Amino acid sequence: MTNETATIYERIGGHDALTTVVDDLYVRIMADPELAGFFTGTSLPKLKGRQVEFFSAALGGPDLYSGGAMDEVHRGRGIEQRHFDLVAAHLVDSLKAAGVPGDTIDEIIGAVAPLSGAIVGKTEG
């Protein structure tokens, strides 16, 4: 398999690499005073597992995402675009820390950026 035919999931190192990135991402998120409050009372191990599933599914890996729809799980949480952008910036930093090349990081951000519409500003009802 050449780099051109490998999925993003395969190019970044598969499940182990995603787990490393997600663990680092949540260290960064929980250290961010603008974001940490969103996760009060959340089971971080469960959330991290879902996040690895999500990234695997989104980046061509074998895992199926078993969590809820993005708009449903984020509804009523008061998430604004700046919060989404902060998480995206932390994701970039986590990917860089894991040694993911810049062009691959751009592909990953390109895959998740469209989700802002389903995550940002969703109210109850």
Task: Kindly describe this structure.
By secondary structure, the chain is mainly alpha-helical. It has one domain: Globin-like, CATH 1.10.490.10. Helices cover 59% and strands 0% of the residues. The protein is built from 7 helices and no strands. Helix 2 (14-30) crosses helix 3 (44-58) and helix 2 packs across helix 5. The radius of gyration is 14 Å and the shape is globular. The N and C termini lie far apart (47 Å). The mean pLDDT is 90. Heme binds at residue 74. GO terms for molecular function: heme binding; metal ion binding; oxygen binding; oxygen carrier activity. It holds the Pfam family Bac_globin.
Query: How large a portion of the residues is in β-strands, by DSSP E?
Result: under 5%
What is the name of the CATH topology?
Globin-like
* Number of individual domains: 1
Helix and strand pattern = HHHHHHH
Distance between the termini: 47 Å
- What is the SS-derived class? mainly alpha
Helix segment tally = 7
Q: Can you give the helix content as a percent range?
A: 55-70%
Question: What do we call the CATH homologous superfamily?
Answer: Globins
